Fold this protein.
Amino acid sequence: MSAKRSLMALIAAVAALAVTAGGPGTAWAEIKIGSVLSVTGPASFLGDPEEKTLKMYVDKINAAGGVLGEKLELVIYDDGGDAKKARTFATRLIEEDEVVAMVGGSTTGTTMAMVPLFEEAEIPFISLGGAVVITDPVKDFVFKTPHSDRMACEKIFEDMKARGISKIGMISGTGGFGKSMRGQCLDVAGSYGIEVIADETYGPKDSDTTPQLTNIKNTAGLQAVVNPGFGQGPAIVTRNYAQLGISVPLYQSHGVASKSFIKLAGAAAEGVRLPAAALLVADKLPDGDPQKKVVSDYKAAFEAEWNQPVSTFGGHAYDGLLLLVEAMERAGSTDGKAVRDALRETKGFMGTAGLVNMSAEDHLGLDLSAFRMLEIRNGDWALVE
């Protein structure tokens, strides 16, 4: 089936296939899909909407007839953001639950702890983590749905270049994502004429980044600051930034692309820019935007079901599940290698993250146009024109 169809068209096609495959009274087999998410703990703002999204859409697909004439069974474990727990649960999914595919891994750290296991088992693994290391270098059975940290750096620097900014400071989290994005930004800065003249870091348990930001503030020639990181750290940085009266623009990463960041940072978030998916500004997209229907439909469904604001993180899970289902249907099988090959052949899939075109050399399939530059204005997201 065409990957350009809407979710409802996909469900309708799956339902029709299920009828021809079985029919009333037929005992259904189950296709087990695994998921290890950070539903609790410091990365719960990622795992919670991911879990809710997967449960909601697995139910929708099953209600419409399942996949390949069989019902999806979702097996979820909560790693609490702990990479060791993630690896343990991955082993359980493979050896005891016997899943045929995996959609999960809320963070880069938990994802990378699980990658070797799914690679060895030859089970397709669609990660929801952000760092480029997940798919670069390419691994046989590992894919991802979020924009990479390298892409975030490039989108930020593209915006800076347009604003005439060339000398910047960086304050990065030392966790897996923050560390990776810092490295990616340093790697691509020169290509955009950007010079990093101050470079500071903070730990995951730091409750005050004033000393590091003071060093950055006192750096001569400073024109902007980038904060690679996710979780509460960027909100602390943003509040401290305002407290110190730093007047140059502050950029955050797509790792804070949810209303929880705005709530945590408060008034200090005003004017902060970040690259993010179109999902956050679904209602602000022009009617002719090719992504508008996908993101608007997902936003409406999620918010109606769970009574909480949509986030890009739930959107990553939506994309991962639909990419997997669509690949299984094209493969006509749940065999690991067949599904892997079908994922690599994905073309023209419009998800919440953007237009996906994968290949054997590209297990992400997004380009820079999939990112939108946003600015926080009056406590909400606004498109930067």
The domain at 149-276 is CATH 3.40.50.2300 (Rossmann fold). The chain has two domains: 7-146+290-366, 149-276. Confidence is low (pLDDT under 50) at residues 1-8, 13-27.
